[in-house]
Amino acid sequence: MIYRSSFYAILAIFLFIQGCSSKKQSAGDFSLSNFDVKESTVAYSDFIGSNDCQTCHLDIYNEWKGSTHGQAGGIPNSDRVIAPFTSKPIQLADAIVYPELKNGIYQFRIRYKESEHEEVIRVEAVIGKGFLYGGGTQTFFGKYPDGTYRFLPFDFSKDESSWFVQLKSDEKWAKINKSIGMIDLYNWPPHRVLGEVDDISNCQQCHGSQIIAEKLDSGYDTKFVSLSVNCESCHGPAKNHVTIMSNIVKNIVNEKQSIGLASLSGLQPKESLDLCFQCHAVKTPLKPGYLPGENLAEFYSLRMALLGNENPYSIDGRIKSFGYQQNHLFSDCFLSGSMTCISCHNPHSQNYQDINRIALIDRFDDRQCTSCHMAKINDISSHTFHDAESEGSRCISCHMPFRQQRAIGTEIKYTRSDHTISIPRPVYDSSQGFESSCIQCHSDISESKLQTIVDDWYGPIKPQNPIIANRLKITESTLGDDAAKLLLQPNLVHSMGQFSNLSYFIKRYLTPGMELLDPEIVNKLIIYAQSEDIDLKALALAGLHYSQYNNLEIQKFIVQELDKLGDKEESVRRRWGLILDYFGTVYYLSGDRPNAIQCYELARQVLPNDKTIKT
């Protein structure tokens, strides 16, 4: 955490530096030493699968086996497949697709109308079973000659009882109809692969366990322990643990040896969240090869998605396109408390529980909130202004409403509960493009009228977090110095909001090699560059490098900070270099080749051995 006293101390130092230094260099004059690439500490052979866990942990194993994780996917069979593989034809504009079961094999037979040519794609893997309350789906993968498992274009919605596809034109989901041709399908020919593969659109490693797609001379070797989400996905590799415990049963004991598996009890909130954010987050890959048990931050950034134009989150963290539960990090329950995923979700059964790990009836049980907010228990109606037993008195109705994920359109139900745990603000919600929780029930009342009702009930409500409130004050006419006062606040705590605000400021107000930049802005960037949050640190270092590469004192500061990074250097530099590479691409796509070249050159200084950076 950065305290105000240290902020002003560093500010004074660098006001002096900026006032005294007039030395300039070009981007090409600055160089950084290379860094050591960490070797993986976990190997595929370290994993053993969940079946061995049941010998000692049968009760937990049975909970997991019946959970959504335990049933997340696998090979196709009658138990797992919910889509109708009945040979009933699916009519497209240029083809007829027959989902069929032939001699125990699930397959899609595609017959092209014009040529009458037929193509058969065997289903080798099934993902999902339509479990999710807000709209559950099932997806299918085929195995291709290059060794990859590829996402097939035909999905099934349990809620709609319908096959659907993703369209190439706008990437939205649509029920199949005769106006759609094979050429219109986003996933045709199949190109998204299971596992994480460089230069190929992929599903990372979330839809299964310990998925590795290793590049060979001619194709890939794709392997996985399971297509469910198994025990080792959270607990890490267990082969050594099983060996040690089996030896203990045989009275072979090494008193100096651990049990071979780290305990997940007593994790700090960030550590606990990172277990879930392996999958339940929008991640930016930094390097391939992640396996559970590794340090997630060395392989993925959980903030860098906020940098790009396709940022899935709104200013206050709500999902504006397609996202996951990572926006929990915007919630006051996290920022002012220590709420993690398992505060509400049992990690083994995926059933609901309260903060004390007491099982709850279902996802709508208010005790997941009132176990912390106990003052609301006795007279809930005085808080909600609705009948105690009504939908309007359920905590999540107002604070975690289900909203359709906009990126996929409205034709296929796919709603997800808002994990920012927001306060209803009807007019503000509407101004940000969101349907307020109030209007979900009261669709006959305008947002302005609903706002009046809310104001009458509650009077002045809790203000928004200052990081968010200040971002909302920025307009098209806001000048850089004024924006800096609003957006650059290193003395506050809101890592997602600060990353978002800092990235916005850099993109809008900074340019490569600026000769004149307010010293106070420079010093705020310096404070951020000393943050313990490696995403924020990397972004600030990139901002300083980008805008002040001709300042010798800033160059010295950057080198000094690198010397302090220790085993975090690779993680920080991968983020930092990718950010500069992104800036270069933005300039390149806008036709500004000189600035693009400058940014790529800066990126290569940070990542000298990265061949993906343009030259």
UniProtKB/TrEMBL annotation:
PROSITE patterns: PROKAR_LIPOPROTEIN (PS51257). It comes from marine metagenome. This is Cytochrome c-552/4 domain-containing protein. InterPro entries: Cyt_c-552/4, Multihaem_cyt_sf, Multiheme_Cytochr_ET. Keywords: Signal. Gene3D superfamilies: Flavocytochrome C3, Chain A (1.10.1130.10). Transmembrane segments: none annotated. Residues 197-236 form the Cytochrome c-552/4 domain. Coiled coil: none annotated. The keyword Transcription regulation does not apply.
